[in-house]
Structure formats: structure tokens, C-alpha cells
Batch of 4 targets.
Target 1
Amino acid sequence: MFWNKKDKELEKIIEEIKVDLSNNYKDNAVLGIKKLRETLLEKENSGKLKEKDLAAYRSILSDFENDVKNFKRTY
């Protein structure tokens, strides 16, 4: 996906989730996805992202949510 300007805060969260998933840190990945969802909503409500960028980040969030939907919590 192409977008105008990557958001540094969202990109950092995305990278953390990728690392957690690659290292099989499922609980951390789930928490990271929650943080991504909340941060994205905050930026959407404040108008800090253009619609095109928002759609791109929503797609990334959806992909992560699909990746972890069958994870079993360990606590």
C-alpha cells in the first residue's frame, strides 16, 4: 500500500507487533494490537491522518487481528 506520510508512532507500534509475532510472543502481540487500535482511533478522532493513510493503517490492523484471532491467552 502507498500512502502520503507514514506516522512514526504507528510505525513503531507496528514494528513491535511484528517482532513479537516473529518471536512467538503472542500475549505481547495481542497487547500491541490493542495499543495500535487505540492509537489509530485517537489519531482518527483528532484528524491527524488523511483518509488514504487511515485506510492503509486500518488494513494493517485488520491483518494483525486476523493473525492472532485464534491465539489462546496464557494468563
Target 2
Amino acid sequence: MQKIVNGIVVEYDQQDQDLVEMIMNKLNEKSKEIMAFFELKEIKNFKIKIWDNLERYKTYLMSYLIANHEQYYDWIIQHSNDGNINILPTRIAKMTSKHENITNEKIASIACHEFVHICQSRVVAKEADGCFWFWEGLATNLGNPEDFYKLIPELDQIKDIDSLERITNNGNYNYAYLVVQYMLKNISHKQILKYVKNEKLLKQDEEKILKNVKDFLQNKEEKTYNK
């Protein structure tokens, strides 16, 4: 089936109607604030596709991952590699090893995460350096922070930006969430947008930013301990 909701084409199977409604409600709730962050007035020319077959979804996703020399993991139940939001519905996502207990609400939250990627892709420079941790940090903070806000501030596993990038690529977005959360609170919105639009600038500053985050958390822990 296909319908248009607020100008967005949605392709789905009838049995996923409830999920579609929840996704669109979540997007209506969050999309204006997300677009405002990127200074976008509207987003056009993308669709939301709810896939009804796991193997076809996997094959389609892998065609993009292989082209980018990336690996497939079955925890990837949504993606926007093609400029659209591709979603496995709850009933199919439950078949994967990491999402046996997933709910419609969780799927809807992740869709907002993917919408952040869509928005960022509209303003990033074509020659972007691909700071994956930064993309996922923004998407988790702006799109689905409710899935990450209980994170315990701990960065011992992150020795440098390369390790942050590697851990994020392996599917652990908690650290990227934490670093970008610090950035959003301590770096001006104007500067963060400069990083979005020109990731070469971010590359110049990222190690310094990570050090500032670790110093901040260390001081926070010491203050808590000394109380």
C-alpha cells in the first residue's frame, strides 16, 4: 500500500498500519525541531518504506554497504543509505537476534533517528570526511535520546577518536551519544553547524573535543566522590 502523510510518501503493508500511524505521530512531534537544528524549512524528495520481507531488505541494504566497504549486521533494522527511510516492521524486526522484544514505539523512535540522518545529508558538504561517530551522535541526541539518556558516563574504552569511530561502527552508539551531548551543551550551535557542513573542520578539532569530554566527566566523577 502507499499513502501520503504530510507530503511524505509511505509504502507499507496493511498489517503494519498501526506502526505507520505511530511513526508519523513521532515524526510530527519531532521533525520541526530537528529541521530547525539544521536550519531547514522543509524536507522533500524522500519516502518511508516499510519492508515486508527480511531477505529483500537485507539484500537491498547490503548493496549499499558493500559499495561503501561496510559490513552487514542484523541489528540494522532501519537505514537511510539511499536517501529514504527504510524500516523493518516490528513483526519482522523481532526475527533478528538483537531485537526479539522490540516494540512499535521503539521502531518509531528509530525512524526519528533516521530522519536526522536525512536532514544532515541535505546540508553536509559533498566531500564530507564521514565522521560516523558524529553522525550517530547527532542522530541519537536529536532523534531518539529517550533510548540513550540513561547512559552511565564512562569513557574508559575510548582512547582516541579512532577507537570512538570503531566502536560506533560496531553498533555501540552510547559513546557517540555522550560526546555529542557534551558538544551540544558546550559548543555553540553556530559552530556545530559549521562542523556539520564542513567535516574537515571537525577533523581538526575532534581529538581536542574528546579530551574535553573526558576531562569534564573525570571532574564530575571527582566532585561526586568528594561529596
Target 3
Amino acid sequence: MSEEQNHIKVYPCVPLRGISIFPNTIVHFDIGRDKSVRALEAAMADDKLIFVSSQKDESVLIPTFNDIYDVGTIVKVKQMLKINGDVVRILVEGINRAKIYTPISEDGYMSCTVVEYPEIHSEDSFSVEEKAAMRILTDKFIEYAALTSQITDEVVDKTLAEKNPIALVDKIASEMAISSSRKQLVLEAEDFYDRINKLVEIITEENDISVMEKQLAQKVKESVDNNQKEYFLKERMKVIQEELGEDEDPTQEAEEWLAKLNELKLEEQVDTKVRKEIKRFSRMSPSSAESAVIRNYVETILELPWRSSSKVNINLNRASKILERDHYGLKDVKERVLEYLAVIHLSKSIKGPILCLVGPPGTGKTSIARSIAESTGRKFVRMSLGGVRDEAEIRGHRRTYIGAIPGRIMTSMREIGVNNPVFLFDEIDKVGADYKGDPSSALLEVLDPEQNNTFTDHFLEIPFDLSNVLFITTANSIDTIPRPLLDRMEVIQVSGYTEQEKAKIAEKYLIPKKIKEHGLKKDAVKITNQALSDIINFYTRESGVRNLEREVADICRKAAFWTVTTKRKTFTVTPKNLEKYLGKKKYHYDTIQGKSEVGVVNGMAWTQVGGDTLSIEVAILQGSGKLTLTGQLGDVMQESARAGVSYIRSIAEELGINPEFQKEKDIHIHVPEGAVPKDGPSAGVTIFTAVVSALTNTPVKQDVAMTGEITLRGKVLPVGGIKEKVLAAHRAGVTKILLPKDNIKDTEEIPQVVKKALTFVPLEYAREALEEALDKSSSSPKSSKKRQQSKAKANKKN
């Protein structure tokens, strides 16, 4: 050990990844790791000597001494160059083999003491065995270079020109294209003769592998015709698979397909086409790209439900019970669905209009379709069309495209396994179109009962019968549905729920459901009727119950948390402690407050989340007849305002208004909540009443609300959304509602409890609204005197 200690010295250490460095060789490599760079800097500040050793596992990013081999090489840095970023490229010369004696540090950079093994060996001191082994080595190296073509002749000549046998062995080992672990075996061999033998063994094995590769290539060359050279690589793979015993037989797979095809008993045209594809597949190489396409094509066709159907049993009593069980309210919708099922039952066919359920979000459109599927014994498929812009989503891709697949309709039919499911197209009003095609046009063939019995997917290119499928669609609005598509559907309006209906739904469905989902006991959470009403009015603003369900879930989450942390068993939610569960109120509703005012009229509006009330305000200013409209009014609403003012000018004298007001006064019409866009013609009669009130200085009764479109002749035309508007007005405290005469019939949809609290007045002409809305008893004496003077003036003219 005393002899070894004479060679012990501390060296900076650099782990190598993927390379091995031998003595007597000059190698360049890159250093990027911080520790390695610091080790290099330490060496450059001293004698430029570094100990390098290969990593055992190349994937280790921050190696320690346990991750590198003990035996490495002491190298001298001859050149250093900084390249991209912090990476340093260095040129080193291998000096001596060395073995780690003691690791010194791993913190700033790796350093260790090593035991060097300097070799002093002259050619005269070689034994006969060593000289023979050297000759074998050089011959094997020349053979290796010739077989692999990885080493050029210049490199071979330069390597063999080395006269020192020790250096020659190291240089040959360095030039070999083998793994670092195998090179390490040569590096670790201390005895020179052992080193030669290990290297000869490695080169011999590499040469044998190269010879085997050439033999395989020769076999492939013999089996390939001269005119089919493009299949060379495929045939080579085939020979390799044969050598490994992994040969595939496409003929056997084709026979299995033919057996399935015989069982399906398809139409002659379809059967012939599929057999032709199977025949093509059996003649192809399994590794070819086209064979994978044909396999996907044939398997898709064989797995489609050509003859498989669900047993349909339409029992209207059962269907009615299921609809009542799953949905509260929606009386008209349920009746229409049951009528539809009755027609299907009697006609034994579904060749009729496609149902389109239209209504606000969260009103149960999708769940109605699920209930129809359950009540008829059919399977249910749902396909969301929201944002679909590619026609291939419906019809599939043609097989000429790489990665072609069937459309989502055929894919869904294949997955569901029957040819008569209930197929729901959800959000059909949100289908888009771009350069990839128009999906809505592709849907025409699917939804048209006269065409869908021969629906042809681009991928399959054969007709499939969709006439047994019960198609249902849903939409939030019919305005964006293309007319040809809408023409093939029968629209069923799913209106929003009233407050009472929402409360019943929450009590009957949502609260028990959420209590169960959150792991609470049946009676753990109780929400009082008033608290439930406050949740509906002040924490949700919607026609459906989706947000109501979220708020109930929020209460249950807090109850679950407090159950675990405080061990409380029951929780009662009241209006007083509601904010403790849900925080501050999110919304507020307009309510009738204060006394009657001049130029302020209660209007009624329809929104996607239900009805609402809005005040229309009018101010009369000194000016030159300018009409100002504010409150983000749309074009239609602005036109209604202008029509109302024009009508007032035409009957000004009859109303006791100075006919010259248009020249002397400016009219400013404003609808509060200016950040919210508003549009539609239904505010015409409301604006008319507000302007007359302002011009005559007559207050408007605050417990009256109105809606209706106005014409230049003062006729009041019907508008939509009556149910939602009336419910909003009732909630705000209105007691009298003025409606277009033709809309009185729409009040039949309003719950009786609401109708009893309201008085409905039909309007045929706008002037009738003045009699009901204006509070003439409260008008100022000045305004009354003005009206009398105007009437007297008009009589004088007459």
C-alpha cells in the first residue's frame, strides 16, 4: 500500500455521460453542469489535470460518487471554449488510468484522491502471447471497420500507425462504437494482456453481429423481385419477424371477418364491397400502412348494429310516470311528448318531425330526452354540437386522408350497439361553419325522415339505415338554427320555471340529492320556505335550476365541513343565517317603491334567464326638438321610441299637448342599468305612456306595468315572453298589467296563484293605456290648465 500512496493526489472530478476517455487519446466533449464547470475552473487554476469517469446511469442529472465508476482516467485540458449559454467545450488528452481512493467533496464540485496506474511497457518486454494477441486485435479491428462502415479508412490508418502497443490498444478501444459500460470493461483491466483479450472479445462479438445483419440483408435481397425494390425495407422487417417467430398471417384474420360477414347477411351491394376489401387485405403485408386503414374500415362495418335493435315497448302510463318522476311542472311539454310517443306506438314508425326542445339553460331539456329513452326502452346517445365547425364530425373523413375515422354519428352507433336508440343532438343552435364545411347542412340528411334510411358516411362509403333512430334536438334559441334544418323539426318551447316551481323542484329533487351526494344524513340540512325563496331571488338569476342546484350544494358543503369539525348533527337555513352559508346577496330585483312620478313608467322585459322589470324615464328639456335615447338601446327599441313620439305628435291636440312642442322641447328617453344592452319592440307602448306623462306633467301609477309594440297609428301589437314578464312584474309588486289584446290568451299559462293577485287590461290602442296608467287626480293644476287651454284652442280651430 506504501507504493500506491506515492501516487495518491487530490484531483477535481468530472462525471462523463455517454462517453469514455482512455489514456493516450485526445477527445473533446461538452461540460454544462455547474459542478463540472467549477471542477474545470479549479483544474485550470492549478495544473489543468482532471479525473474523469463515466456515469453508470446516463439519466442521472446530478451524480454523486456512487453514480460513477471507480476506475477512470486522469486527463489534461489542452483547450477550452465557451459555446451556447453556460456550456464549455474542452479538448483533453488522456494521461493515466486511475482509481478513486477517497472522495473528498461533493458540495462546490466533486474532488477525490486517486491511485494512478502509470504503465511503462516497451515492445521488447512483450511475451509471445501478447504479441500474438496484438496481431489478432489489429486484424479484428480492420475487419470491424470494413463490416460496420462506421470508421473511415483514414481513421483506421491513423490508429494503426501508433507504434506504442499500450497506446494502440487504448486508441482502438476509444474508436469502437460500443456502449460506455462495455468500454469500461477494457478501461478497468489493469493487466495489459487481459485488456487485449477483453477488447478482442468485444470486437469479435460486434463482427459476428455485423455478419448476421449482412446475412439477413442478403436473404431479403434474394426474396425481393428486381421490380419491387421499394418494398425492400418491408421485406427486411418480414424476414426479421420470421427469424424471431413473430410472423403474422393476414389470411386467418380475413377468414374470421368473412365468417362474421356471412352472419350479418347484408345487402348485396354492401356485401360485395366489404368482401372486396377483405380480399385486398389478405394479399397485403401486415406491416403496410394501407392494411391498417383497411383493417379499421372492415372492423367498423362488421361492428355496426346492422340487425341489432333494442326491444321497444311504449307504455304511455309508464312514460307519464317517468316524466312526472324526473321533472316538475312543464305540463305542456310532457303532454306533447306523450302525444308524440302515442303516434309512434300507433303508426309503428317514427317517420315524423324531429322534436326540438327549445328553452333557457337548466330547464331540463337534456333530461327530458333521457326520460323518453327510459320510457320507451331505448338506449340513449348524446352528441353535443356546441362549437362543431367541421363537416367531417358528422359525415366522417374520406379514407384517402391519413388518420381517417368515421363521423361521430357512426362512431356512436357502433359504440351503443343498437340501430334504434334515442339520439340527442345537444345545442344544435350553436353549430358553426367555416372553410372545413357546414355541419348543419350535413345534418339535413341525418334528420330528414325521407333521406336518413340511406345515410352515407364518407369513411364507410356505404348506406346505413338511421330511420329507426329517434332523433331529438335541443337549443337555447331558434334564431341561429338554419331555416332548412329548422324546417325538419317540430319546436317545443320549454319555458322557464316560476319561483314556486323552482321551490318545489329544490324541495323534491335538489335538496335530497345534494344531501346524499355530500354524505350527510337525510334530515341533516333543512332549508325553510322563505330561505329557499331568498336563494331563488337573491342568489340565482336564471330560468332553470342549474345555479339553484349549485347554491344548495354550497350549503351542503358547509354543513359537511361543520359536521366534521364541530360534530353538529343538523343545520337549519333561515333568511337570517343565509348569508352565513352563501355570503352576500348576488342579485336584487326591482320592487315598486315610493309614489307615482311624472315620466316614469314600469315596463316588462324578457331575458334568457327569465322575465325582468325595467323603468323607462323621460325628461322634457328646453331645446329645439332633439330626441335623445340612452341606456344601450338596440336599433329596434330606438325605432319604437321614434314611432311613439311620432304618434304623440299626430294626436298632440287631442291629448292636450301643445302641437309645437317638437320645436320648443328636447325629449330625453333613458332606460336605467345603462351597462346592460336592451332591444326589442315590446317597449313601444311603455315609451309612449312615459312621454305623454312627461309632456302633460301627469304622474304614472307605480303599481301598473305594461308591454306591447306600437304602430304609427297607435295600434298595440302582440309581443312574446308574456309568462316570464308577468311573473317578474308580480314579483316586483305590480297589481295591474296592461297587455296587447292578442296576448290575453297567453295568460292561461300563468299559475293561478299569480293570476289571482293581478288585474289584466287588454289594449287595442295605445291611448287606452293612458286611461289606466296616468294618475290624473295627482296632476298639477298648471298642467290641467294647460290641457284645458289646448283643448279650447283645438275646438276654436274646429
Target 4
Amino acid sequence: MNPLRFPSDSGGLVTGTFNCSNNFIPNGASEKALILGPDGAPLSKATGRVEVLAADGTVLSTVQDGAGNALGADGLFFLGVMSVPGATLGGAGRVTLRAWDSASGATFSEATVKGQTSINLPSLDGGIKPPDNLSDSDFRGLRLSGGIG
């Protein structure tokens, strides 16, 4: 399969993108694909943090200092459009989503309440087609594990 090319200033390939938001109900589910705390309740936006990593471990989300992006609402993140390194329009990609409760540690590695999952993105968008969100992926939500203190 040949990668698609669209007119651009650089004349290069269009990178595959996706809209990184979990504000959707996965097919066959009855609830949104939320980030949940160990108790099963949506993780608080006051302390919930998320970050998205490329396959090589590069942080793709906007906050790249280890502190993570804050949740936009309890259990929900709205990280905007992200490009997947090495992926092209219509191609597949894979990213890792990490989430944690910052009350248990400032960063993912320090937190005791945390979780992560690999997300398969089967058909990336971009170019003249607006990017879909994670609803086209295999992401169905994430429940954190661990405890505070």
C-alpha cells in the first residue's frame, strides 16, 4: 500500500493523527470509556493525570515534564489531536496511555495509584479528513490499581 500524499508546504507525507479524548461510549458498552480509581468511581479531575506515549516512549501529550495532563472532568481527558510518529494517513498506530492519581505521587513512576494500557489505533486520520477520537480504537477505559499511603 502506498502512503497518501497531500499538497503541503514540505511536500511530505501526511502523518496519521487521532483526537485523544475518552468522551465516548465504546461499541457494546453502556458507559463512557472512563479513567476509574481503584474504587471503581471516576478518577477526580482535581488529582487525575494522564499522558500518552509513542511506541518508543516519547511523550506525545502536551505536558512533557512528567507531571501529566490534568483530567478535563472526572474520569475524562481531552488531550486534542496527536500525531503518531512513523504512522501515515489511513495507517495503523499504537500508543500507550498512562494514568495516575497525583495525590499518590507527582509522576507516573512515583504514584502508587496508577495504571497503563496499550491502545491499538487501526486507521489514523489526518490531512483533509478530521481526526476521529479514540472511539475507533480498542480503548474501553482504564481502572487504576494501588493505594494511597
